[in-house]
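User: Please fill in residues for this 161-position structure.
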């Protein structure tokens, strides 16, 4: 389904919890696997087919329109906060699908996709379950959007030899 936001996926999780349903119960009701629903609720909108997504939207009265808010109409707006933006972690597992392999002058590197690995600011990778890193594993510096630490020059994700 095009333009399906991670916010919509998370609103399904909230609605399911409000309804007092487990992931297994809801998955059986809409016709999908519990594990796929779990990944969907973490923000990966590609884990369920369109028919199941439409059933979820109908069941919980959620809008699938990309321009509309995915939350229910009676949801209160979030207050403004002075907290800093979410520092998303990256998955250190080189075999995790959140890390995209590429080569620079025959050197194998992995570009971490922090949005996919950590869609909700959790402790574990949403795709493989590995403990997320929030600092450079080599020097402890703050991470940035690249594949290599700008302070120590070492890659964030490496294959153990």
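Assistant: Residues filled in for all 161 positions:
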């Amino acid at each position: 389904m095009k333009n399906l936001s991670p916010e919509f996926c998370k609103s399904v999780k909230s609605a399911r919890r409000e309804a007092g349903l487990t992931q297994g119960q809801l998955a059986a009701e809409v016709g999908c696997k519990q594990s796929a629903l779990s990944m969907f609720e973490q923000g990966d909108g590609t884990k369920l087919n369109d028919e199941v997504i439409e059933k979820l939207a109908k069941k919980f009265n959620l809008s699938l329109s990309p321009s509309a808010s995915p939350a229910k109409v009676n949801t209160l707006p979030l207050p403004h906060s002075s907290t800093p933006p979410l520092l998303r972690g990256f998955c250190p597992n080189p075999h995790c699908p959140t890390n995209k392999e590429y080569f620079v002058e025959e050197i194998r590197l992995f570009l971490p996709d922090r949005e996919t690995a950590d869609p909700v600011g959790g402790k574990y990778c949403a795709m493989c379950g590995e403990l997320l890193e929030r600092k450079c594993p080599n020097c402890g510096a703050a991470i940035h959007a690249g594949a290599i630490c700008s302070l120590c020059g070492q890659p964030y994700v490496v294959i153990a030899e």
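For context: The chain has two domains: 6-60, 85-161.
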